Amino acid sequence: MERRKFIRFCLDGSPKFTKANETSLITQSQITQYSNKLMQTLNFIYPERSSIRFERFVFPDGQPHLRLDLTTVNQEESSCRVICRIANPSDLLMVLFAKNALEELGIAEVELEIAYLMAARMDRLMNEGEAFSLRVVATMLNTANFKKVTIFDPHSDVSTALIQRSKAITNIEFVGKVLHDAVSRFPTMLTKGYCLVSPDAGALKKIYQVAKALAVEQVVECIKHRDVRTGKLSGFKVLEDDLQGKTCFIVDDLCDGGATFIGLAKELKARNAGDILLVVSHGIFSKGFHLEGIQHSYTTNSFQDFAAEVEGLTVLEYQN
Questions:
Q1: How much is the pTM?
Q2: CATH 3.40.50.2020 applies to domain 2-17+171-316
Q3: What is the side-by-side strand order in the sheet with 41-43?
Q4: pLDDT, tens digit, for every residue of 198-216?
């Protein structure tokens, strides 16, 4: 049954999200692309696709600044969508500048689409004496009073709880594209099977939603312990005795240094895993792209642009 479902998915090339919507092949990114054609956009990720042209520059004192090309702004239209990644404080400030500049031109209904949200991981007060970073970022965005905010695969529900009028864009479409690509690279997944791997308890809810949407029959649960004061990881455990050579897709929202996935790969191999692939929406890879025990990694350019191809890494374009 598992193989038949996957072959149907591969031949189709587009994931079936639910049984009720099985005949619909329209993806979330296609809906957004169509919407962008109807609304003027200010696109910081893909400036060449921005209907409003702009210039970003920095003054000698270090202050970033934004200037819109007025010849490309339709001031008779009251709405605009700002598309961005907020990977650092400068990006956050640029988003606020954009909202202000558009308002000054009489464009009051501004939507915000965030490919990557800085501080999404800091979704609670970790230690006494530290800042609740996500709340600070959310408060700044809320002051801009965006009409609507969408966030691609945020770390937890806390982001959408703190940011007003916001909703999450799931990673379902992204993971579906990865499965479609992986079947040609790792054909044993059709003969020995495959599974999705949840790296920790925090990822379980999203993993099961992805598995249901893409008709993946097995989810392997894992646990770990992180010392929030030191960041040290320990206690990796895979809650499955024998993986029978199955291809394992570790699915998570982001990869920073990669210690979680290196530790999990070791435990998965000890339980007879086949190829182990990493699927992360946001690829930071602060300690390099090669992760011991991981045969191949998939990510998007939500956090950063990748200047050159990297062996063992496939980057899918963030869709908007």
A1: 0.87
A2: yes
A3: 41-43, 79-86, 109-117, 148-152, 166-169
A4: 998 888 999 999 999 999 9
